[in-house]
Amino acid sequence: MPDVDSDKLHELVLKMLGDLGGAFSVPTVRIGCRLGLFDSLQKDGPATAAELAKRLDLAERYVREWALAQAANGYLTYDAEGERFSLSPEQAMIFAMPDSPFYMPGAFECAAEMIAGQPKVEEAFRTGGGVAWGDSSACLFCAVGAFFRPGYVNSIVQAWLPAIDGMVARLETGANVADVGCGVGFSTLLMAEAFPNSRFVGYDFHAPSIEQANAHAAAHGLSHRVRFESAPAKKIPDGDFDLVTMFDCLHDMGDPRGCAAHMRTMLKPDGAWMLVEPIAGDRPENNIGSPVSRLFYNASTMVCVPTSLAQEVGEGLGAQAGEAKLRDVLTGAGFSRVRRATEGPFNMVLEARL
């Protein structure tokens, strides 16, 4: 046996127990979201387990154990005297308010999908190959869309677009916008709703995502000026755009340098490329110890790097590439002006111009 520092071992065990508690909460939180348990406590007020079960026509014994598990998680508040469960305002922002910037059920969906995709990623470790986007699990693309949506709802129009020099005025007057790597279309539709005089087209190489995006456009009554097409980033046929956007996807691409070069050809001479990527330092030691980087490194291992390695070139930038590497990609593609326009707790926003 090696010499062991008992205090350090105890600290690590406690940390591991906390991590495992979080991991064990993934299925119970998903059940709570899918069956409306969190929503009922938010909309209809505190309840005993029996009252909550009756509201939703569920089995009381299951609901009681679920509610106690969430109280142990710190996700519900428990009044022992009245045996009632409730959501504090802070808990409600995380579990029961879809437009809150802190709404996190999508993250629990992502965790479940990454576990489902483990066998394919594990095999890729042995072969060095990739796992194509959409192939690792049943609906990873749905979970990723749900995970990013709250941040997009609270940041794209309010903070990110205003940080791009002169762009809001152009969008208000009427601009042509391409949203590359649009996924299920949340980012594209948010911009379209905010700027009714502009025209938007979303591109993604994953056909099932495009199907959902077109359905979302129709549901929002935006099909007359928003369209979605399935196309790899390097083969998008259209051009003459005032603005090209990419939200959390360049690092997933097999050939980010080739994609960047093609974005250059899509822009008007005075156009801009707004690139949103996960926030990260330029060196691994800058990221280790950060809870945000911890999430992104694990997601990158299970999703981002396998997705990139499954494509042409397979550069595998990863979700923690850092600004310096991203700048190298952009300037190497011919963009002469690159700056960090703004940032948030999860993302950096780069503005690139010709």
Fill in the keyword field for this structure.
Arc Repressor Mutant, subunit A, globular, Rossmann fold, 51% helix, alpha/beta, single chain, 3-stranded antiparallel beta sheet, 354 residues, 7-stranded mixed beta sheet
Reported CATH architecture of the largest domain: 3-Layer(aba) Sandwich
Can you tell me the overall shape?
A: globular
What is the number of strand segments? 10
N to C succession of SSEs: HHEHHEEHHHHHEHEHEEHEHHHEE
Q: What is the typical, i.e. mean, pLDDT?
A: 96
Task: Note the beta-strand portion.
Answer: 15-25%
The major beta sheet can be summarized as: 7 strands, mixed
Instruction: Count every helix, treating DSSP H or I runs of 4 or more residues as helices.
Output: 15
Arrangement of strands in the largest sheet: 6-5-4-7-8-10-9
CATH class category label of the largest domain: Alpha Beta
Tally of structural domains: 2
Helix content: 40-55%
Give the class from helix and strand content and strand pairing. Answer: alpha/beta
Q: Termini distance?
A: 61 Å
CATH superfamily of the largest domain, called what? Vaccinia Virus protein VP39
Low-confidence stretches: none
What is the CATH topology descriptor of the largest domain? Rossmann fold
Domain S-adenosylmethionine-dependent methyltransferase Rv2258c-like winged HTH: 29-94
Domain Methyltransferase: 173-278
